[in-house]
Amino acid sequence: MDLPSFISALPKAELHVHLEGCLTPGLARTLAARNNLPLPPSLSALDQTGSSYSFHDLTTFLQVYYPNLSVLQTAHDFADLAISYLTTAHAQNVKHCELFFDPQAHTARGVPFPTVVRGYQAGINTAQRALGISASLIMCFLRDHSAEFAMATLMDSLPFKDVIIGVGLDSDERDNPPSKFAAVFQRAAKEGFLITMHCDIDQPDTLTHIGQAINEIQVDRIDHGTNIIDSPELISTLKQRGIGLTACPISNGIVTDDFKGKEIIELLRQGVRVTVNSDDPAYFRGYLNENMLKLASAADLNVTRKELIHLQRNAFTISWISSWKRNHFLQMLDEFERLTLGSEATQVLNGV
Ligand code: HPA
Ligand code: ZN
Question: Is the CB–ligand 1 distance for residue 21 below 6 Å?
């Protein structure tokens, strides 16, 4: 089996994907037309030049990302966005997804909180029924807004605790450390939400932020966070507590100067529960298979097929699902390994 076929056939879990980052130009045009709205500026520029979105780091990416969301108005729109992503994920043999969403990016422009959550959940239900894919929602707070706004959003979410499994923190990390939201996350934990948060790549004070996430906020997971490679002490705590990292190679390569494959594989080989994910696939032009392939085909990394399976074992292990479901998916991976690798389990990918 060639490498792309191996990756396609591998049963996978996606733990770091922003639903708003799945808004393809095509879907945005459809929704703009349906809602009688003008195309957002980045999309009309795209239409005129035929080129791709223009950004070079997290801040400039977010400056394109948020204005595009104006086309999302009704529960039907949010449902269609979730169905669109889950259809692609299913076609890539993704078995389970934990989907970030940014309610404040919608409530701040007048869309009611229940419209967002009910729409996304309806889309998930439809995709689950039609495709059998498993999915759940993680609500992210926008860290470049106030802690008060985050707390009010947490309060809005309480009637929806049955459909939101956890909370996260995203958007612009500069000058917005995890500790700014300590009270919000403390309350979220008390309400029974699981906790993750972005520690974006190569940010100022990144190790301080990672340390706060682990020790002060007591996160269950970290999104990105691979700069931890520079702190053996934090790595040791991470491993002790079994905290996983959701890495996103293609995204890294676009918002920084490197896709950080070396760091991801080094952490994997040190026994950290690192995973591979797609982040904002409509913008970064890569879903889960493309992200796995990016890592697997880097000649200097010598990633083995066994390690690719291990990355997915990590994903199911750190996913927020019942132990029954986890065992089911892990058995699926065992079977996949037996069928594909047999005794060749340690073969090196490159040149195979
Ligand atoms: N980092 C921070 N905020 C985000 C991202 C990201 O990768 N994607 C969407 N919002
Ligand atoms: Zn992200």
Answer: yes
Query: How remote is the CA of residue 268 from the centroid of ligand 1, in Å?
Result: 23
- Residue 279 assigned as binding residue: yes
- Cα–chain center distance at 223: 7
Closest ligand 1 atom, CA of 255?
7
**AA letter at 244:** G
| CA proximity to 296, closest of 96, 97, 4, 8 | 4
DSSP-assigned states of every residue in 170-221: ES--TT--GGGGHHHHHHHHHTT-EE--EE-TT-TTHHHHHHIIIIII--SE
DSSP conformational letter for 55: -
Question: Residue 245: which H helix or E strand, with range?
Answer: strand 244-247
Residue 352's SS3 state is: coil
Is 328 annotated for ligand binding? Answer: no
Rounded distance, CA 197 to CA 318, Å?
Answer: 14
Whole-prediction pTM: 0.96
Asked if residue 211 has its Cβ within 6 Å of ligand 1, the reply is: no
Q: Give the whole-angstrom CA distance, residue 88 versus residue 128.
A: 13
Query: How many Å apart are CA 213 and CA 168, to the nearest integer?
Result: 11
102 CA: nearest ligand 1 atom: 10
Residue pLDDT tens, the chain, 352 long: 999 999 999 999 999 999 999 999 999 999 999 999 999 888 877 766 665 677 888 898 999 999 999 999 999 999 999 999 999 999 999 999 999 999 999 999 999 999 999 999 999 999 999 999 999 999 999 999 999 999 999 999 999 999 999 999 999 999 999 999 999 999 999 999 999 999 999 999 999 999 999 999 999 999 999 999 999 999 999 999 999 999 999 999 999 999 999 999 999 999 999 999 999 999 998 999 999 999 999 999 999 999 999 999 999 999 999 999 999 999 999 999 999 998 554 455 554 4
User: Whose CA is closest to atom 3 on ligand 1?
Assistant: 171
Angle of helix 305-318 versus helix 288-296 axis, rounded to 10: 140
Considering the domain delimited by 3-344, tell me its CATH architecture: Alpha-Beta Barrel (3.20)
Please work out whether the CB of residue 280 comes within 6 Å of at least one atom of ligand 1. yes
